[in-house]
Amino acid sequence: MVFCCAKQNLKMNRKFKSVCPHDCPDTCGIISHVEDGKLVKVKGDPDHFVTRGFLCQKVMNYPERVYRSDRILYPLKRVDEKGEGKFTRITWDEAIDTIASRFKDITSKYSSESILPFNGSGTLGLINGNVAGKRLFNRLGSSRLERTICSKGGRVGYKYTLGAAFGSDPLAIPQSKLIISWGTNPYYTNIHQIPLIKEAKKNGASYVVVNPYKVKSVEMADLFIQPTPGSDGALALGIMNVIINNSLYDKDFVGNHTEGFEALSKRVQEYPPDKVEDITGVDKKTIKKFAAIYAGNKPSFIYAGSGMQHHTNGGMMIRTISCLPGLVGAWKHPGGGMFYPNSEAFPIKWDKLEGNDLCPNSPRTINMNQLGETLLNARPCIYGLYIYNSNPAAVLFNQRKVINGLCREDLFTVVHEQVLTDTVRYADIVLPATTQFEQTDLHHSYFHLSLQLNEPVIEPLGESKSNINVFNTLAKAMGFKDKCFDETAIDIVNEALKINSQYLRGITLERLRGEGAIRLNMPGEFHMPYQDLNFPTPSGKIEFYSKKMKLDGYDPLPAYISIEEGPLTSPDLYKRYPIYLLTPSAKSFLNSNFANIRNSRNEEKRPTIEMNVNDARKRKIKTGDMVRVFNGRGEVSLWASVGDDVKEGVAVNKGIWWNSLSPGGCNSNQTTSDRLADMGGGSTYNTNLVQIERVNDDKI
After folding, report:
1. Which SS3 state, helix, strand or coil, does residue 380 take?
2. For residue 13, what pLDDT is reported?
3. So what's the pLDDT on residue 91?
4. Any residues with CB less than 8 A from the CB of 62 and at least 6 apart, and which?
5. What is the pLDDT of residue 347?
6. How far apart are the C-alpha atoms of 370 and 375, rounded to whole Å?
7. Do 137 and 163 fall within a single domain?
8. What is the tens place of the pLDDT at every residue in 207-265?
9. Nearest 10 degrees: CA dihedral of 264, 265, 269, 275?
10. What is the pLDDT of residue 5?
11. Which among 458, 605, 479 has a CA at the least distance from the CA of 11?
C-alpha cells in the first residue's frame, strides 16, 4: 500500500490517507482509492487505532456524493423567485465582485452588524470549519454567530460540576465494569464505540442503555430503561437517593474530593423512587436496581449523548447526571467517570488563529438556533447572510420562520455549498465548494483525542473552491490587506502546531503526513483528565453544590425541572398535543448530510414516524398509513410505523430528511421549537408536543 501527499501526482492510481470531516465523534481515518484521478472507493484505515479498518454506511457512499449530478461545479446567480432554485452560471470574478460590492453597500448604508455569517458542522476541520470564516468576518466586524445547536447547554451544566468540558478517555471503555449509554445511539452516531463496549462485555462488564427509544444497542444491553423524554434529571436524582440512603457511595472519595455532599443528601430526599417513578415512568424496582448496579460495579463509565440535553431543562439535566461519578468515586479509575463530548481536549488558542484581534468593534452575538426570528425581527436588521458548512433551511427549528426569513427580497444571501440543498434554493449567489477529498485541513476528535491531517486526493471538480480560498479572495476584494489573508491551509496547520502546549509537543506536519492519526501527548496508556483528583472548579473539587451556579442565577444543587411542554407545565397544550415527538439521528444520514444520496435514502426508505401501538390504535393508524403530524408551529406528513420501540405517548421521526425530498415539501422541523435551553443558549428541539392523525385516502 502506498500513501501519498497532495504534492504528488493525483492522477496516478494510489491509496491515500484521508480524514472523515463530519460531525461525528469517530473522526475516522479513511483510505481513499484513486484511479486515473477519480475517487473510486473509500475504506476504513486498518492502522487507525479507532477506525480499525471499517467505516459507517454513510461514509462508504462518499464517491457518489462527490460525483453526483446535483454537485455544484460553477458559481451561480439567482434568476427566479427565492425558493425556486433556478440559477444561471457566472464567473468567479463576477461572484466575488458582487458579494464584495453588496457587503460594502450594506456596511455603508446600515452597519457591518447587518451582515451575518451562518456556519454549521458540515466540516469539523480546524481551517475550513473555523479559522477561515472567522478571520474574514472578524475583520469585517459583522454580527457573530453563537454556535449552540449541538452540545452547548449540556457543556455549561457539566462544567458547573467538574470545571471543564473534558471527560473520560473512551478508549478506556474496555477497562470498565459498567458502561451506561445514556441518551445516545452509538450504532448510528458513534459506531466505533461499539467494539469497545463489546470488548468490555467480553471482559465481564455490564451494559445499561437509558433512552426513551429502543435503540439498536439495546440488543446487547443487560438493562434497558425507558424514561419519559426530559425526565432524565429526575432519574439521576432517584439513583442518588438510593445510593446515599443505603450508604452505597464512596465515603473516602466524597469526603476528600467533593463539595456540598450534605446539601446534596438533603436535596435527594425530595426524589424517593416512588416519586421518580411518577415523573419518569420507570418503575421504582428498576430505579433501585439501576442504583445498585451503578454503585456496585467499579469502574463505571457513563457516555452521555447530546440528544437528551436538547430540552428546555438540558443544561441542568447534564449537570445532575454529571454528579453521579463523584458519588461512587468513578474518577479514580481508568475506564471510570463520564464522557460528554470532549470539546476542550484540544489545547488550541482559538483567538490567535481566528483573528479576534482583527475585529474593529464589539459586535453583537446572534444565536444560531433562532435564525428565523433573527431574519424576521432583529434590529439592526440583517441584510447580508453568508451560509457555509450548513443547510439551515432543513436543519433549523420553527422552520416556517426560517423559510419566511430566507424569502425576504431585501436579504442578500450567499451560499457556499457542494450540492443543491434546500438552503441553496434561497440563495442570490451560489459558490461551488470542494469536498474533503479536494482540500487540506487539520482535524481533532472530540472522542479519541488525536490530530489528523487531510490533504487532497483528487483535483477540485469544476471550479469548486475551499472555504479558506474563497474567504481569502473575498477579503482582498473587500480591500483587507492583513497578512493572514495570504496564508494557505498548510500555513495555518504549521501555525497551529507551533502553539506552546505539552499536548502538541513533537507533533509535526511531517509526522502527520507519515503516520496518520497521532494521539495528543498525554501521560499513561489512557488519559485520565483528573488523575490527580484536582478539578478545575472554584473549590478544586467536584461540586455537588456550586456557588458559581447560584451567582449565575441557577439552583446551586442538582434539580429536576419539568420541560416547558408537558402535562405539568402546559396542561392545556398537552391536551391538544399529547405526543412527545423526538427527532434523533438516522442510520444513513448525518444531520442533513447524505440525505440526497440514493443508497442512503434506500436504507431509510421514506420519512417515517414510529408510534407506540396503543397510540396508533386510538387514532386508527396502522403501519404504512400516511399521517399528519402537527402543532401550533407547523405540520408535516409522514408514513406511520407502528410497534413497541417507543413508549406510549412518544413518537420518533429519524432524520434529517430534506424538505425537497419529503411529502408536501416539509420535514419535521416545521413542528420543532426555536426556544433556548436553560443554559448556554442550547437548542430544545426535543421539547416538542404534537398531535398525530391519519390522513384520509382521498387526501393522499
Report:
1. coil
2. 77
3. 98
4. 39, 42, 435, 437
5. 61
6. 9
7. no
8. 999 999 999 999 999 999 999 999 999 999 999 999 999 999 999 999 999 999 999 99
9. 60
10. 47
11. 458
349 secondary structure, DSSP code: -
Which CATH number belongs to the domain containing residue 57 in this structure?
A: 3.30.200.210
Residue with cell 489528523: 452
From residue 440, how far is each of 19, 33, 433, 501, 624 by CA, in Å?
10, 17, 13, 23, 45
Distances (CA, A) of 53 to 120, 200, 342, 516: 28, 20, 24, 13
pLDDT-flagged residues of the chain (< 70): 1-12, 345-348, 697-700
Pair 111, 164 in one domain: no
Distance CA 345, CA 429 (A): 37
The Cα 496–Cα 515 span in angstroms is 18
Helix (H) or strand (E) holding 576: helix 571-576
Q: Domain span at residue 60?
A: 14-66
Q: Cell match 419529503: residue?
A: 662
pLDDT of 637 reads 97
**Backbone phi, psi, residue 6, to 5°:** -65, -20
**Residues in the chain, overall count:** 700
**How many structural domains are present in the chain?**
4
Note the pLDDT of residue 9.
Answer: 58
Q: Are residues 33 and 85 in the same domain?
A: no
The pLDDT of residue 598 is: 75
What's the predicted TM-score (pTM) here?
A: 0.96
Q: Which among 104, 92, 119, 94 is positioned nearest to 469, based on CA atoms? A: 92
Look-up: residue for cell 457566472?
90
Give the domain CATH number at 223.
Answer: 3.40.228.10
Q: Which residue has the cell 413497541?
A: 644
Residue 448 C-alpha cell reads as: 479519541
Single out the residue of 128, 72, 37 nearest to residue 469, CA to CA.
128
The pLDDT of residue 12 is 63
